[in-house]
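User: Predict the structure for this protein chain, please.
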Amino acid sequence: MSRFSRFGNDLYSGAKAYDIVGRRKFWYLLSAILVIVSLVGLFGRGLNFGIEFRGGSELRVTQVSSQEMTDYEPRASEIVAEYDGGSTTTITQIGDDSIRVQTGELSSADVESARAEMAEEFGVDIEEVTSSLVGPSWGETVTQRAVIALLVFLALVTLVLTFYFHTWKMAVAALVALLHDVFFTIGVYALLGIEVSPASVIGFLTILGYSIYDTIVVFDKVRENTDHAFENGRQTFGEAANQAVNQTLVRSINTSVVALLPVAVILIVGLTLIGPGTLVDLSWALFIGIAVGTFSSIFIATPLLVHMRQGELFIRKHDMQVKKRRARRAARTGEPGAVTDEDSDADADLDALEGDDEDGTVADGQVGAGVGAAPAATPGAASPTTSPSPSGQAPTTQGRQLHPYAQRGPRNQPKRKPRGR
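Assistant: Here is the predicted structure, written as structure tokens:
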């Protein structure tokens, strides 16, 4: 068995664990730094929109020999500068024998003159120099459709997650992680000056699905673990959620690595051999989005969920009962750290919480199935007000010793035979 497989087995079995949920303030701080970096990129440098969004003219020179490709950028820029009127010009090499020149909108006469000069400068026929005019309205249409698709996607995801997990807080945590991924990806685009094209927009929408998929996998394990913790009473809500993150950690890393490898290959080949184009634009968005999506699904979504739910009455009562059981078990076994005062404080806090519950205060998400539902009473389970006791002694309820037959009321009374029979 490989070392990484053994590491994954240890995380899943609980032999090794990392306190990811407990250190959520650190992850919040790291996420805030990423957001600040994104803001610096967006408001400092701004996005580098492609010609499809800003509009303009494009010239392409093909079949250029390797000798003529020497110093192609200043030579092409000098020609276009005569016609573009100081507009922003982008000159890139595509493949081994093609040059792409993007500039501001040129008149038909200027385009024909630029084509002739380009053909003469790079030693090709004029038919090898093509031109196209792109209006900004096309880019605006793409942007509007992308925004509509994003809003519809977010609305559907919110509804599906709310009904699937039976709590809106899971949907909110997943959406926060989702928006975090998209926002950071756009910020990296701005910082690095990567051109935003329609293919980039497609990549942004694609990483939405990947990010939400990874988050749902983690949340499904969180629901399974927390439901089990509610039944056996051995773990607090935060501990069960943290165990779920550890159990899915290796799986998330493996899935992300498998997804990133082909994207990285396409990106490297595109940058070194093919040149700028649809594949490169799409690969940039996927590579950044998948990487940050793995981070958010593990270190942002689940810690945020625990942070949002730990104040619910049902969760607080459950966690308090777990701590009471541990304190009493430590007191019976003589384990170090057993303090009677803490046990008394836990009793008082739990009594106060139960008093709030009797007054009609119901925690959000307590009603219904799933993570937020109170577990059904199981046979043999101790009552919340019944405390375990050492073997050979009768259980006690709030300090009063009870007869073994009086634990659960008349239903548990043994049937007595009439005298004389």
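Confidence is low (pLDDT under 50) at residues 337-344, 358-400, 402-411.
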